């Protein structure tokens, strides 16, 4: 083995250990009995793994509900954002029209807007909409779907653009010659071909929605049933003593699904980014 | 007879059909309609509202309708610009974000290069670990790092053998730990993107370089970096945007901005001003200033895109 290979291997393994350690520590702490967490003699393993923290979290704090809420919001955002972004990406890559560049720049600018700064007007907007359409007002999951859809969209369009452009136009032209209508070409030919890109894009949309803390905290004021995971986690922070076992168990429950999702689409994600790169 | 006449006309019609986008004048707008339906009300209108609120005296009394909203012109801005506190928050936001961008890029790029040279198993290990950190929600990343650095039960204090040292007491130590958490979350994106980019560079180019006797260092700066320039621009800009807008980690790890708000960044400051002190007008003014700063970054980015000859 060459020296440079050896150094690279060492650095890679060391970086992997350091990077993964917090996740390991989170899961380990979630499984440690309360006594071991409280102990001042720390051990990087446990001989008596227990589900007591998970049971407490899932049983006591309505956590299952929050989990489901987060999932519903994130998946709805993923599906809607994929379809809407795909259409917009087709528009800006397949057509030459007036203001095309302007539209593109608007998507880019939208990405830059500090969405947290928009919390203030959005809070009032959602409150006012709620009086007309209760389904998307304050304290509803609908309000969260709406804002996350809006915030994940500009980036999704920007990313999808590269994938749509990478599909040879000749394919669509051939289909057109064969008499396929535009909607058929769009959904039966182009849509499947950009699937890797859609997956990569979906990962970002999913994470935007799943991770959101600020809007959940701001919009879901009193309806505990509409709370999502990130904001619900705060329940375990106590002024006197934090319930670290509970926090770690809840954090594990919040992280693992995303982790599985990520690892499952990992290859596609990398291929997707590679595709965007080659553009 | 008809068949005979249409047969020669066949290729002709095909050419016409295949010609670029017939009837496409309205179609792109049709495809853009759903995006517009989402973005205009949820982006355009709030941005307009943000600007509007920032020139009004808008507090709890006005929200509840107890008092009429009063137009106060630039008063919110004057108050901000004359406030020492605003300037210190602005300063530390810029310094913190810049440090995060540099650290994220350095770690991400270095590890991307390491990935290209490492063997199969180490590469897989690092990729999976990075995926885990990437996938971890900001919220849970914040909680785990807080636990690691907890004064009493934290692993770090126990390993270092120091009792009860509070890592979240000193302003810059706190920024350091929050920063480490953010970099931990964000370097994987840079690493994976750049690695994918390096993979896409034809092997023959790198081979030629090594045949010409170029060192790894040279190959990186003279060949890889220039070829990846468009990608690097995207990664840099994304990092600036993300790091300038950090909210969750600061808010959660420092319990709303640290002791006496010492760890506030513009985002948290705006949020606390609006929702903590019910100064919605003033909070909006901070939001406007922040938006303008990011808009300036965006314009620089767009100019850079045009300069590099990338067609939009």
TrEMBL record, chain A:
Principal localization? membrane
Compartments where found: Cell membrane
Span of domain ABC transmembrane type-1: 67-265
Keywords of this protein's UniProt record, alphabetized? Answer: Cell membrane, Membrane, Transmembrane, Transmembrane helix, Transport
* Spans through the membrane: 7-27, 66-91, 103-125, 145-164, 185-207, 244-265
This protein's record includes keyword Nucleotide-binding: no
The record describes its membrane topology as: Multi-pass membrane protein
Q: Which SUPFAM superfamilies match?
A: MetI-like
Q: What PROSITE patterns is this protein classified in?
A: ABC_TM1
> What's the domain of life for this entry?
Bacteria
Protein family (similarity comment): Belongs to the binding-protein-dependent transport system permease family.
* PANTHER family in the cross-refs: INNER MEMBRANE ABC TRANSPORTER PERMEASE PROTEIN YCJP (PTHR32243:SF18), MALTOSE TRANSPORT SYSTEM PERMEASE-RELATED (PTHR32243)
Name of this protein: N,N'-diacetylchitobiose transport system permease protein
Species name for this entry?
Streptosporangium brasiliense
Supply the source organism's classification.
Bacteria, Bacillati, Actinomycetota, Actinomycetes, Streptosporangiales
Automatic annotation (TrEMBL), chain B:
Has keyword Magnesium? no
> What Gene3D superfamilies does this protein's entry cite?
MetI-like (1.10.3720.10)
The family line of this record is: Belongs to the binding-protein-dependent transport system permease family.
Organism the protein comes from: Streptosporangium brasiliense
> Which protein, by its recorded name, is this?
N,N'-diacetylchitobiose transport system permease protein
> Keywords for this entry?
Cell membrane, Membrane, Transmembrane, Transmembrane helix, Transport
Segments forming domain ABC transmembrane type-1: 90-301
InterPro entries reported for this sequence: MetI-like, MetI-like_sf, UgpAE/MalFG_permease
* Superkingdom classification of source: Bacteria
Q: What is its main location?
A: membrane
Where in the cell is the protein located? Cell membrane
Q: Which Pfam families match?
A: BPD_transp_1 (PF00528)
Q: TM segments?
A: 29-48, 94-115, 124-148, 172-198, 219-241, 280-302
Query: Where do the segments described as Disordered lie?
Result: 1-21
Question: PROSITE patterns from the xrefs?
Answer: ABC_TM1
């Amino acid at each position: 083995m060459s020296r440079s290979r050896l150094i690279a291997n060492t650095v890679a393994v060391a970086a992997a250990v350091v990077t993964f350690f917090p996740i390991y520590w989170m899961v380990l702490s979630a499984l440690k009995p309360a006594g071991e967490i409280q102990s001042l003699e720390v051990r990087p393993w446990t001989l008596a793994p227990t589900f007591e923290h998970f049971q407490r979290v899932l049983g006591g704090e309505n956590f299952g509900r929050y989990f489901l809420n987060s999932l519903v919001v994130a998946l709805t955002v993923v599906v809607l954002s994929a379809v809407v972004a795909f259409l917009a990406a087709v528009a800006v890559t397949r057509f030459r029209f007036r203001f095309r560049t302007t539209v593109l720049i608007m998507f880019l600018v939208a990405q830059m807007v500090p969405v947290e700064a928009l919390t203030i007007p959005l809070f009032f907007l959602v409150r006012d909409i709620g009086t007309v359409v209760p389904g998307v007002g304050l304290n509803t999951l609908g309000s969260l779907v709406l804002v996350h859809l809006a915030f994940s969209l500009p980036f999704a369009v920007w990313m999808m653009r590269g994938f749509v452009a990478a599909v040879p136009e000749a394919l669509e032209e051939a289909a057109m010659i064969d008499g396929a209508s535009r909607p058929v070409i769009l959904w039966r030919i182009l849509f499947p071909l950009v699937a890797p890109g859609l997956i990569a894009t979906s990962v970002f949309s999913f994470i935007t929605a799943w991770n959101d803390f600020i809007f959940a905290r701001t919009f879901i004021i009193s309806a505990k049933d509409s709370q999502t995971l990130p904001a619900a986690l705060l329940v375990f922070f106590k002024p006197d003593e934090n319930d670290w076992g509970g926090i770690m168990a809840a954090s594990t429950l919040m992280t693992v699904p995303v982790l599985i999702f990520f690892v499952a689409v990992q290859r596609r994600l990398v291929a997707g980014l590679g595709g965007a790169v080659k553009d | 007879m008809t068949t005979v006449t249409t047969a020669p006309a066949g290729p002709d019609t095909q050419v016409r059909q295949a010609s670029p986008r017939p009837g496409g004048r309205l179609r792109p707008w049709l495809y853009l309609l759903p995006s517009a339906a989402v973005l205009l009300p949820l982006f355009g209108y709030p941005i307009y509202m943000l600007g509007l609120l920032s020139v009004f005296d808008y507090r709890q009394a006005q929200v509840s309708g107890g008092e009429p909203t009063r137009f106060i012109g630039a008063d919110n801005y004057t108050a901000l610009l004359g406030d020492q506190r605003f300037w210190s928050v602005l300063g530390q936001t810029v310094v913190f974000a810049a440090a995060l961008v540099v650290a994220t890029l350095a770690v991400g790029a270095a590890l991307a290069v390491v990935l290209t040279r490492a063997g199969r198993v180490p590469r897989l290990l690092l990729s999976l670990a990075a995926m885990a950190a990437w996938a971890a929600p900001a919220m849970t990343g914040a909680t785990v790092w807080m636990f690691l650095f907890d004064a009493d039960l934290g692993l770090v204090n126990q390993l270092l053998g120091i009792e009860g040292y509070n890592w979240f007491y000193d302003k810059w130590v706190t920024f350091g730990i929050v920063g480490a958490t953010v970099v931990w979350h964000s370097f994987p994106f840079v690493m994976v993107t750049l690695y994918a980019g390096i993979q896409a560079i034809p092997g023959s180019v790198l081979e030629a370089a090594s045949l010409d006797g170029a060192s790894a260092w040279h190959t990186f700066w003279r060949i890889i970096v220039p070829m990846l320039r468009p990608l690097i621009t995207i990664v840099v800009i994304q990092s600036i945007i993300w790091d300038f807008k950090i909210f969750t980690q600061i808010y959660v790890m420092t319990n709303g901005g640290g002791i006496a708000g010492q760890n506030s960044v513009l985002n948290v400051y705006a949020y606390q001003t609006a929702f903590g002190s019910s100064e919605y007008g003033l909070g909006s003014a901070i939001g406007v200033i922040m938006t303008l700063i990011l808009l300036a970054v965006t314009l620089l980015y767009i100019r850079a895109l045009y300069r590099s000859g990338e067609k939009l």
